[in-house]
Amino acid sequence: MAVSVDLIDALKRLLRGQGMTYRELAARLKMSEAAVKRMFSLRAMSLQRLEQICDVLDIGLAEIAAESVRGKDSMAELSEAQERALVSDPALLLALFLSLNRWKQSDVLAQFSFTEPQWTGLLVKLDRLGIIELQPGNRARPLTARNFRWRRGGPMERYFREKLLGDYFADAFDGEQDGLFLLSGSLSVDGVRQMRQRLEEVVKEFDALLVRDATLSPKERIGVSLVLAQKPWLLQLFQGYRRALDAKG
Predict the structure, then answer these.
(1) Distance of alpha carbon 16 from the chain centroid
(2) pLDDT tens figures, 233-242
(3) Among 153, 144, 93, which residue's Cα sits nearest to residue 122?
(4) Does 79 lie in the same domain as 105?
(5) Do 46 and 99 reside in the same domain of the chain?
(6) Which pTM value belongs to this model?
(7) Where do runs of H (alpha helix) occur along 71-115?
(8) What pLDDT does 23 receive?
(9) Which of 84, 118, 145 is the last residue of a domain?
(10) Which tens digit of pLDDT belongs to each residue from 162-221?
């Protein structure tokens, strides 16, 4: 049985939403990248192959059908109002984190203190905010891209700077999975540009690893936060040693 063109187009959007490339999908399906590209370009796919791709993406056929009707790309960024709602309710923010990372309700209730009605209520709020689509069995289908970004200068970024940054650096980075690198120096403008590009490559690699490990059970995954930053900066304690600049040049 052949799969409709609309379903295949919807599947392509879901792949983009999860940041998964044809090469990564081919590796998971044990196919060549060329064969996967041909399958999508010709829009020729069997129902069995579609089910295999669903397993890779941890989605159901009903989700693809809904996406084919919806016909919208996944959100790459939340709105100001959506971010404000999340930062004002820590439980809701946790629910989003768990939903984006494909936690099943049984795992959530086993590892967190939510009751089933409380968990359902949080999912309903996320659905009303337009961040997820709540499906039967309390399955949460994220409407964001898996690698979506917080708004620059938005509520979440401000919340992180004001409330979470101190918490993040409060404990020593001495565990097996920890890493803290404090580097400073003087670079040319071109050097700074190249360093920025390298940081962006690390971000892409982090996104790719998220996609690769998304189908593992919660017990096989560790929550990880990666903070990358670069800016022209001099420690405040050094500012008193600066020579005042001559206004006349």
Answers:
(1) 12
(2) 777 777 777 6
(3) 93
(4) yes
(5) no
(6) 0.60
(7) 80-87, 90-100, 105-111
(8) 92
(9) 145
(10) 888 888 888 898 888 899 888 888 889 999 999 999 998 998 888 888 878 877 888 888
Phi, psi of 72 (to 5 degrees): -120, 145
Q: How far is CA 26 from CA 7, 70, 151, 153, in A?
A: 19, 26, 33, 38
Q: List Cα–Cα distances, 149 to 41, 83, 154, 249, in angstroms.
A: 29, 11, 11, 42
Burial of 188: CB neighbours in 10 Å, binned 0-12, 13-18, 19+: exposed
* Amino acid letter, 229: A
Secondary-structure breakdown of the chain: helix, strand, coil percentages, each rounded to the nearest 5 = 55, 10, 35
Q: Where are the alpha helices (DSSP H) in 101-233?
A: 105-111, 116-128, 155-159, 165-168, 189-213
CA distances in angstroms from 122 to 85, 89, 110, 160, 247, listed in the order given: 12, 10, 16, 22, 57
Task: Name the domain count of the chain.
Answer: 2
| Residues spanned by the domain of 42 | 5-70
Instruction: Give the tokens for residue 138.
Output: 């309390």
Q: Is the pLDDT of residue 66 over 70?
A: no
Contact 88, 99 (CB under 8 A): no
